């Protein structure tokens, strides 16, 4: 059954918010035959992750999704959809909410929350919040357990990843598209993070690696830290820097499907925020998370909540080394020392990353969970 969906995205974290909502919108159309409109207020960020978008058009259809540039001049002629998603608590236009309340059949109003591994999420997932105008808003939490909404995962994603990894030709062709040439024996790492004052400690350690390392860095906020370490004013896509065992190659910012392939190419991935954090997990390789910083260290509680789940099954030594490294990566501890103490467990952590990926794939994916939630609400109303 085709249902209409309106998804609202107010971009806060550069590409994380729009990255999640754009993947979700695409999947609802491609895999569930839904009618989806995506409203995004930051058109520049959207066109970065989907370059095929026309920068001058305020409304366009892309991959089956009707995408709107959401501005303060809201077109009140738009009729609210059957399902309305406010992504990450972004406030909806007042005139739109009024129109929602006037519908004969009230829409399903969902507040799609940020991803969290904290225990309280299961208790709040799916709860209703009555609104003054008679509508109900439901809280929907992505997560890592069967009691949450799951993670974004397209159908056949892990099979496509495996096929890509097994094809040397396909992998090499992709790297050639990036302008990357891999030397014999090099291990591939990727780095996508926020600004990191302590990054120089990690880069110093990579120059002393037992095996040569090729570090692939999509253009982004961390480039200033990398440039200062390398002694440059700035670094641009195409630039290559070499010091001892480390080569650094700056690559252009990639659209989402290409970013997945980049992660699949690498032996280790550094991710940030929410969207790339999830994709690094589906890559099935050791990874690290640069979590979005919050006041009063609230982000570190979320980091540890995830680690409490993720480290289950590892040896105590590997688990402790991973926790120390993740804390250091997020500004708490000596990053160079943490990396040295983590490296002996890479083999165990590689197997663990694939096992974690497989266990998460046993849960329902986020798009399917949302569709099912709507069907359940229809049944409940009837």
UniProtKB/TrEMBL annotation:
Q: What is the reaction catalyzed? A: dTDP-beta-L-rhamnose + L-arginyl-[protein] = N(omega)-(alpha-L-rhamnosyl)-L-arginyl-[protein] + dTDP + H(+)
Instruction: Extract the GO molecular function terms from the UniProt entry.
Output: protein-arginine rhamnosyltransferase activity
InterPro entries the record matches: EarP (IPR016633)
**What are the record keywords, sorted?**
Glycosyltransferase, Transferase
Q: Which Pfam families match?
A: EarP
Q: What does this protein do?
A: Protein-arginine rhamnosyltransferase that catalyzes the transfer of a single rhamnose to elongation factor P (EF-P) on 'Lys-32', a modification required for EF-P-dependent rescue of polyproline stalled ribosomes.
| Family under the similarity heading | Belongs to the glycosyltransferase 104 family.
List the protein's name: Protein-arginine rhamnosyltransferase
What is the originating organism of this protein? Pseudomonas duriflava
Q: What is the lineage of its organism?
A: Bacteria, Pseudomonadati, Pseudomonadota, Gammaproteobacteria, Pseudomonadales
């Amino acid at each position: 059954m085709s249902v209409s969906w309106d998804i609202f995205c107010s971009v806060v974290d550069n590409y994380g918010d729009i990255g999640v909502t754009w993947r979700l919108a695409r999947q609802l159309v491609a895999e569930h035959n839904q009618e989806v409109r995506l409203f995004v207020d930051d058109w520049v960020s959207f066109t970065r992750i989907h370059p095929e978008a026309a920068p001058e058009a305020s409304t366009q259809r892309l991959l089956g999704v009707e995408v709107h540039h959401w501005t303060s001049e809201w077109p009140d002629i738009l009729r609210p959809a059957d399902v309305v998603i406010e992504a990450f608590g972004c406030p909806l236009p007042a005139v739109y909410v009024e129109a929602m309340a006037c519908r004969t059949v009230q829409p399903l109003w969902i507040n799609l929350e940020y991803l969290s591994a904290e225990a309280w999420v299961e208790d709040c997932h799916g709860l209703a919040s009555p609104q003054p105008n008679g509508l109900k808003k439901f809280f929907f939490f992505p997560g890592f357990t069967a009691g949450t909404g799951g993670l974004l995962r397209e159908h056949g994603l892990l099979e496509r990843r495996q096929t890509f990894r097994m094809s040397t030709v396909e992998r090499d062709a992709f790297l050639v598209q990036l302008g990357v040439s891999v030397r014999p024996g090099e291990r591939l790492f990727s780095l996508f993070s926020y600004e990191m004052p302590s990054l120089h400690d990690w880069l110093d350690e990579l120059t002393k690696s037992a095996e040569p390392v090729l570090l692939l860095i999509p253009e982004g906020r961390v480039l200033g830290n990398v440039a200062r370490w390398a002694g440059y004013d700035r670094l641009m896509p195409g630039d290559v820097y070499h010091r001892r065992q480390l080569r650094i190659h700056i690559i252009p910012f990639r659209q989402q499907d290409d970013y997945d392939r980049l992660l699949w190419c690498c032996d280790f991935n550094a991710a940030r925020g929410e969207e790339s954090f999830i994709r690094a997990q589906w890559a099935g390789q050791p990874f690290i998370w640069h979590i979005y910083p919050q006041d009063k260290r609230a982000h570190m509680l979320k980091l540890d909540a995830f680690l409490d789940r993720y480290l289950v099954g590892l040896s105590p030594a590997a688990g402790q080394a991973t926790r120390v490294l993740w804390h250091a990566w997020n500004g708490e501890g000596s990053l160079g020392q943490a990396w040295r103490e983590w490296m002996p467990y890479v083999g165990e952590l590689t197997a663990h990353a694939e096992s974690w990926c497989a266990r998460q794939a046993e849960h329902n994916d986020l798009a399917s969970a949302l569709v099912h939630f709507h069907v359940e609400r229809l049944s409940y109303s009837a």
